[in-house]
Structure formats: structure tokens, C-alpha cells
Fold:
Amino acid sequence: MLGWVITCHDDKAEELLSLLEKKHGPLAQCRAVNFWRGLSANMLSRMMCDALHATDSGDGVIFLTDQPGAAPYRVASLLSHKHPQCEVISGISVTLLEQMLPTRESMSSQAFRDQIVALGGPEVTSLWHQQQKNPPFVLLHDLYEY
Structure:
């Protein structure tokens, strides 16, 4: 099963998880990490790292964030590079998460990423999709053999 780490500004992460659990019951391998004003990036990183390890059963973890480029998204992006089968999604809503809930047990992290972005519309994106728009920087001298 894919683990979920919901991480948003203020208390939105806990609010989203609470709404999901009220309707669907307790969610295994799911944690909420709130990013409060004044919280250091280092502390946010430690909290998200703990949540990553608590939700990962070996099938992968999806970081679900509210805003692309904001601190929760950036920290999740850094963590995802160190762990296989991790994806970072931004622009989430409770409706979208409800649609994706049944797929946690059957989809790979990459298939989940592609489906949530397709369902979510233009405001939902992933780290992978953003990287496809902006390919990595390559030095010109690396392109040519001497």
C-alpha cells in the first residue's frame, strides 16, 4: 500500500486527514504534517522524515502538498530524491484525495502520480511533471567530446 504524507500550511494537513477519516475511518500508513509560520525548514524536514518512515511499507510514499514551490513541497522534494518510489504532488483537495483513496492499494507510485495529476486539473501537479517542463541544466562542454 502506498503511504501518504499530507503536508500543508497551518492546520490544513490535519484538517484534510480528519475529514478523510471521519468519512472513511482510520487510514493506515497516513500522516499529517502541518507547517506553521515560524517553523524552521530543518524542523519541518525532521517531521516529514519521521512521517515518511512511519508510512512506508516498501511500496512507496506520496507526499501530498498544498502549494507548489512552498516549504512543504521543497522539503518533500528533497526527501523524495533519497527514497525510491516517492512522489511529490501539489494542489491537493479533500475531494481529489477521496477519489484517489481506493487506488492506494493497487497502484504504483508513478501510476498514482499520473492519475492524480490527470484528475486534478491544471492546479494539480507533481515534482516529476515540473521536472519534465524544466530539464536539468547541462554544461555545454559536457555535450561535446574533445
Remarks:
- Helices lie at 12-24, 41-55, 71-80, 94-100, 109-120, 127-133, 140-143.
- The beta strands are 3-9, 30-35, 61-65, 86-90, 125-126.
- The chain has a mean pLDDT of 90.
